[in-house]
Amino acid sequence: MDETSRGQSRLMEPAILPVWLNQRAISNRGYIGLWISMAVIIATFQLGAGGVAGLPLPIVIATIFFANLLLGIVMAMTADIGTEHGISFAVYLRAPFGTVGTHIPSITRGIVAAIWFGIQTYLGALALNGIFSYLTGFDNWVIWYIGFAVLQVINTAMGIRAVERLAKIAAPAIMAISVWMYFTLDGLATASGKDIWSFAGDAEISIVALFVANMAFWSSLAVDIPNITRFLKVEAGTKSFFKRNKNVFLAQFIALPVVQSWIALIGAVSFIAAGDWNPITVIQGQGTGITLVVLLVMVVLAQWSTNTSANLIPAALTFVNAGAPWITYAMGLVLAAIVGTLAMPWLILDHLFTYLGLYGAMLASLGGIMICDYFVIRKRRLNVPELYEEEGQFKYIAGCNPAGLIAWVVGGALAIYAIDLSYFVGFFTAFALYWVLMKAWILPKFKQDELVHTDDEKYLATSINRNWVYLDGQGMVKMDCSSIPAHALSREDL
């Protein structure tokens, strides 16, 4: 593929090229910081409050913890796509869905991420409005929404290093303020004669429903986590899954379950103390001066640090993948902000659990397909150069792999039908159906070279200390860091 053909290729844009080992900027501490920041979002308060409305608090916290622990297994597996090959979520989906078919599930995920961006930005704007309304008397959340959205887009456009730096600053501040919030709310509950640990609500809610709702909560990042892990520092030259992904494990199996449970606990205590799931509202109603400002600063930091990594980056990359080479990374970020705003997030927030259930069902089936394709069918070997070829092995039928599309639609539909068990129904139905369709129909008709020639040296990257590098005139080639020439196509999202 020469310079002319690259410039016209709908599969090629710098932001969606593989990330080299020497470009992976996120440290173990930085990745943990990202997850601490992402777990501290206001919507998590609602999960805890919704659970304690009908279940004892210890049961609620244990349910949320183990749900996140189980989902961490899915995340750790899909994360390997990024750590091994350095590719993004939408580019990888070209393998199970085709170079055209990828756009259907990936844009669906992109829209979900954009809507979450809108929700988070709205909540942050309310906090900013509260701060400045208290200090100056100026009261207009719309102005703060626009300003906050622009600030987040600019921060994310500065690259993954800027995103990581924000998380490192925000995470400890957020956790410190959250501890203060807990003791403040516990004091309110005690003052009103309520014991948070013996409180029992009378709403009808099952442990299973709460468990599934929490898995649906992070089902989006469980599929597109390669967008972040492709920038994560790794131990190169090892084929051990655990050594290669050791920087993933602390975040997925400790930081996420612990922090998510902690924030849900605060939401639950807020409900017990004041009958309101939102502790921000409760404390804001009683706070004044510096107390109020500190509380609202925590809200802004939490929304900001979550939005950059969990929502803006995934949304932008799916839009870049769909619009390459005409949509750049910066344009994708702006588009994500516009879509998230047009979705009117202030209305969706009132129906959060319905929203979680519907998109969680569709993305659960997508996770089943990804894990089946990557681990079971391809056994982690991936013909990455062909992912960027319009007439290559991933063209399938007019650019679409019907096995992936059928499994995704059927798995998603059954998950919505069995909404109380949506994540499990969607994941395992899509996993099994995709495997059957690939083995019986697609693989006999469409040769997948990594399945015919099971050569680790040819189809693995990080495991053998190599990078997938695009060179004009040569296409995608594999080389070690010291051999990458200066004229290799550079990235725009570092």
From TrEMBL:
Q: What keywords does the record list, in alphabetical order?
A: Membrane, Plasmid, Transmembrane, Transmembrane helix
Query: How is the protein disposed in the membrane?
Result: Multi-pass membrane protein
Which Pfam families does the entry link to?
Transp_cyt_pur
Keyword Signal present in the record's keywords: the answer is no
| Similarity comment text for this entry | Belongs to the purine-cytosine permease (2.A.39) family.
Enumerate the PANTHER family for this protein: NCS1 FAMILY PURINE/PYRIMIDINE TRANSPORTER, PURINE-URACIL PERMEASE NCS1
Q: What is this protein called?
A: NCS1 family transporter
Organism of origin: Pseudovibrio brasiliensis
